[in-house]
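dumping this here so i dont lose it
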């Protein structure tokens, strides 16, 4: 549990998952408990699906005057499990720190990937969000996991900030938060430190400073060489028995990553597909299903 008077937290998510909103809700809950708190994002050239960062600082004693990004957090919250493969989520995390992960994998598997240096908490927030909210937006769901793992704020302290932020949708969001609290599994820091499994290194997207002036993007997924398919948490799967080969999915794909096969059916290039689900929503015969990524 986190009991320090001064706590720093870093959120890792993707554009559209609500990491910035989650950080704001934690800060509001902390302020309601008569603590000092701040929440702020790290903005770059992000778009929906791209990795984003948000930060919290919470103090039970003195006002928070630091405004820099959190580089040595006590807590790291990971909204998308795919980020484990492309971002060093444990960078700077203190040795007695806590990692809270959204994943369908078991606690043992996640722990083996991250090593035994930190406390680890795991919940399948994506499944809960789709069940309770109908969308894979996991920010309020992960709040429940965060509270279960750290006690950084009380669960009931989140109720009013969630009500003010979501209005008529607040009840389901708070229920998702409570469900995640109940289903979060936690494993403590081990006494011996093992080396984490080596995860595949995926080529990082360039920052805006690295892009050439006057460059033209002529390939799906922002540029031919960058594997933006690692941004997704779900992928589309086609049922050829239902597919009428109309090509509507091809027309509506915003990434241009759906191609026609030799048999006249369609399929996504998973190297670029970001899992937005537009193809599934536009498919009138219902031949496309969005399935959860497990790798």
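and the seq i came up w/
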């Amino acid at each position: 549990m986190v009991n320090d008077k001064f706590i720093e937290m870093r959120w890792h998510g993707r554009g559209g998952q609500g990491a910035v909103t989650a950080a704001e809700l934690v800060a509001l809950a902390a302020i309601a408990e008569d603590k000092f708190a701040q929440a702020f994002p790290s903005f770059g050239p992000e778009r929906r699906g791209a990795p984003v960062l948000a930060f919290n600082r919470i103090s039970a004693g003195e006002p928070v005057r630091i405004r820099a990004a959190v580089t040595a957090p006590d807590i790291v919250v990971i909204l998308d499990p795919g980020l484990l493969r492309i971002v060093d989520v444990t960078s700077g995390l203190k040795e007695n720190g806590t990692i809270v992960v959204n994943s369908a994998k078991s606690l043992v598997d996640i722990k083996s990937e991250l090593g035994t240096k930190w406390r680890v908490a795991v919940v399948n927030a994506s499944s809960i969000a789709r069940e309770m909210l109908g969308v894979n937006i996991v920010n309020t769901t992960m709040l429940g996991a965060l509270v279960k793992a750290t006690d950084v704020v009380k669960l009931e302290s989140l109720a009013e900030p969630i009500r003010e932020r979501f209005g008529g949708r607040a009840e389901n969001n708070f229920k998702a938060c409570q469900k995640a609290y109940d289903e979060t599994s936690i494993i403590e820091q081990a006494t011996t430190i093992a080396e984490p499994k080596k995860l595949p290194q995926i080529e990082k997207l360039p920052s805006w400073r690295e892009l050439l002036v006057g460059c033209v993007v002529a390939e799906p997924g922002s540029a031919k060489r960058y594997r933006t398919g690692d941004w997704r948490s779900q992928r589309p799967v086609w049922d050829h028995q239902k597919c009428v080969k109309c090509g509507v999915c091809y027309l509506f794909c915003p990434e241009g990553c759906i191609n026609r096969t030799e048999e006249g059916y369609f399929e996504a290039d998973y190297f670029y597909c970001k899992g937005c689900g537009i193809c599934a929503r536009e498919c009138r015969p219902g031949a496309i299903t969005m399935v959860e990524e497990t790798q």
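The longest strand covers residues 6-14.
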